[in-house]
Sequence to fold (351 residues):
Amino acid sequence: MPKPIVLHIGEPIKYNQKFYEEEFLSHFDVVRNEDLDRESFINALKAEKYGKFSAIYRPHFQTGGEMGQWDDELISLLPSSVRIFASAGAGFNWADVDTLGRRKIWYANGAGASDEAVSDTALYMILSVFRNFTRAQLAARTADPEIFNTTHKLIATISANPRGHILGIIGLGNISKKLAYKAGVALGMEIHYYDVVRATEEEEKQLAVTFHKSLDSLLKVADCISLHTPLNRHTQDLINPRALSLMKPGSRVVNTARGEVVNEDALIAALESGHISAAGLDVHYHEPQVSPKLAKMENVTLTTHIGGGALNTRINFELNAMKNILAVVGPDGEFIGEPLTPVNARAFKEV
Fold:
């Protein structure tokens, strides 16, 4: 009896070979995408080159994007047999997940696999923007004793301990819940948050967090904000000139979410004026291009979108995507359940 087909896009399995061979391949026939540009991929879908596949599997988020944006043009060409698109990575701005949901196709990401790594990165950024670690590191790397001594004296006059300051978390998801715990317990910060969906009373009590009904309210009290929202039409340029103007003079901005959530020109202007004293950015508006202006600022900590960049993350991204498909697709290609980490449940269930 033929097994359901899984269309594999991107690089092959790297870390979970035993699970792939013994568990995944016992349930599915896997075919690899051979059409490595958008036009040829579209033609392959039109010709049903890969058959009536039941799932799309993208185990490595840095590959498998050769067909470009998963918009209605691509999604409309998928066979009616498709039940789930299971991808590595936490972000999903490269796919129209609501359109997939309306087609009764689950989209599942790698949520959970990167929670520890990204929350650790945000914690590092918070320490850096309060303590000016980037400025100190740049000075030390000059190997110039005069610059060393000058910076040593300066840092003590412009830095602060995070303890007792208010951390404003925008988007209280799994990553930022870990950050709230870490920043509260380890750094002694007071945690406030804003989210369109409020956490339960039990969660708020457990994390010792204070809810704000509006973003404006949070921005006005925070000494440092940390962004943890997906990128969509509602969140692009969420932190814009108006939002920054509401923040306290000398406050700080940390972004480990998506670059386009923070209006880069507005942030640069606020840093240049001194209204924002420091920023920590793992993600960038025109990524992989980093703003040359931001790169020259000693009060800005910059990294190369490595928030989730730990081997543990990669291993679990790959594994969890397989588990999501196993949870959804039955032996005849039928639905047998929901994915472990669904992104588009609302759109899927509204149909």
